[in-house]
Amino acid sequence: MTVPPSDSVPSDSAAFAARVGAGERAFRMLLAARGRAFRCRDGTGLGVDETGCAIETDAADPRCVLVRRDGTWDPVDGLAAEARAVLDLYLPIRPPGAADCMTVAHLGQSLDGQIAAASGDSYYVTGPANLLHLQRMRALCDAVVVGAETVATDDPRLTVRSTAGETPVRVVLDPRRRLDASRRVFSDGEAPTLLIAAEHRVARQCARHGLAEIVGVPVRGGRLVLAALLETLHDRGLKRVFVEGGGTTVSGFLEAGLLDRLHIAVAPLVTGRGRPGLALLERERVADGLRPAHRVFRMGADVLFDCDLRAAPCADRDLEPRRVL
Ligand SMILES: NC(=O)c1ccc[n+]([C@@H]2O[C@H](COP(=O)([O-])OP(=O)(O)OC[C@H]3O[C@@H](n4cnc5c(N)ncnc54)[C@H](OP(=O)(O)O)[C@@H]3O)[C@@H](O)[C@H]2O)c1
Asked: Coil, helix or strand for 109?
């Protein structure tokens, strides 16, 4: 999938279509439509104009991408397969006009369940299509959350670079304040950044760590109370939250029942014992495990499980056919 730089402004719709491809156009429509109110009557169509802005159209307009049917947004008939796959995957994350809160987590893991080698090296477990997916998820969400160990090991930027959209607020869980202010998220000024520390380690309001704002969150049993963290983010208008890793952080959100969706990308790779992905409390029987409703997407050589943790669990072996991104 070829993606142009996000700052390229096309001069007309034909050039736009030729340059970005159907999938990226559909993605940009979702981006442009986020947070905007539409009439949302059945029959309303949404498209993207030559400058990448979301517009109301009728379903027959060639620029139309989504149409409102029976109270939900559906891809318009006859859409290119690539655009349909993009909408299938991202429409539940950011339906046009939705104002409610959602928390989604992602991990990219090997066949043997590892998200990094024992040294912490994780470049790269999954391939370029999944890395583009991560940037699209950042762009669709208001905040991206990572644990202290990910910042300590990877020194990530957590920016949006390879697709359209803006970098969301970056949120680092560093309860003990162990990370140095020279880390890129705290020093590059690419986007607003919050350092989340245990409440008792925050001396005063409006304290800063490098360019980041320090925010105190209550602790229970030695762990940050993640429900309180989400409340703090929501109060700041950060309603769509993307938890990008690592395994400890995603497991905490999952165990606390705070995730609406979970994306697990499995790469055809065996790393040997390294840093584990999900690590939840023991369950006595396999039958006590989670078996979430899910869809399956192909991303290059990787396979993404998109689990809907708010839907009824799926029946044993109830796999949907593969879709291709
Ligand atoms: N493949 C992927 O998808 C992916 C994604 C991201 C990262 N990674 C890799 O994964 C590794 C890091 O993952 P990880 O699981 O070891 O660590 P992590 O999740 O990045 O960070 C865990 C740390 O964050 C803090 N933390 C997170 N949740 C907390 C809570 N509820 N309460 C208190 N503190 C909390 C704690 O910091 P303290 O230790 O200070 O208490 C905890 O030890 C790195 O090697 C990185 O390269 C892979």
From this structure: strand
Q: Which of 70, 90, 110 is the last residue of a domain?
A: 90
Q: Which atom of ligand 1 is nearest to the CA of 274?
A: 45
Pick the closest to residue 198 from 179, 223, 180, 181 (CA basis).
223
Q: Helix (H, G, I), strand (E, B), or coil: what is residue 298? A: strand
Residue 317 pLDDT exceeds 60: no
Give the span between the Cα atoms of 97 and 23, in whole angstroms. 20
66 pairs with which residues across the strands?
46, 75
Domain boundary among 90, 122, 145: 90
Query: How many Å lie between the centroid of ligand 1 and the Cα of residue 278?
Result: 11
Which structural domain, as residue segments, surrounds residue 294? 102-278+289-324
> Who lines ligand 1 at CB under 6 A?
107-108, 115-116, 120, 122, 125, 146-150, 153-154, 173-176, 178, 223-224, 226, 244-249, 252, 275
- List the Cα angle 247/101/216 in 5-degree steps: 60
Give the distance (Å) from ligand 1 centre to CA of residue 292.
24
CB-based burial, 89-98: b 16+ in 10 Å, e otherwise: bbbbbbbbbb
Instruction: Note if the pTM is more than 0.85.
Output: yes
Residues 114-163: tens digit of each pLDDT: 999 999 999 999 999 999 999 999 999 999 999 999 999 999 999 999 88
Domain count, the chain: 2
Ligand 1 centroid to residue 1 C-alpha, Å: 30
CA of 252 to the centre of ligand 1 (A): 10
